[in-house]
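Reply to dn_fold:

You asked what the input looked like. This is it:
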Amino acid sequence: MTRAASTVLHRQHAATLDGEDDDLDVPFPVTELPGKPYVHRRGGKRVHKSSAIRWCLYGIKGGSVKLGSFMSGGARCTTRRLWEQFVVACTGEQATPPPQVNPRDHRRAEVELDRLGIA
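and this is what came back:
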């Protein structure tokens, strides 16, 4: 496969990451990590692409935590799953916080389930 064809295929796969049906295992170049909607720094700043490469090669916290990556077609690539694992390893928190449940909505749902005889 030529480099141009590889780039076209990559862009088609990367486009799926921007949709609602995110595929956690679709590879993309590490240099594109800063443009992903789930990657950000404090204050809403974008991460620089050299930071993403550094996280892959040298890690943080003295090299004990690295962003998982692999070489594909001469480019260092990663996936959203590897990014989320990196965030968890760095902070001890999930990359995407779980949705907040409104207690009132929760109670309404319980009442509705009881009314339907489902428990």
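The longest strand covers residues 75-78.
Hope that clears it up.
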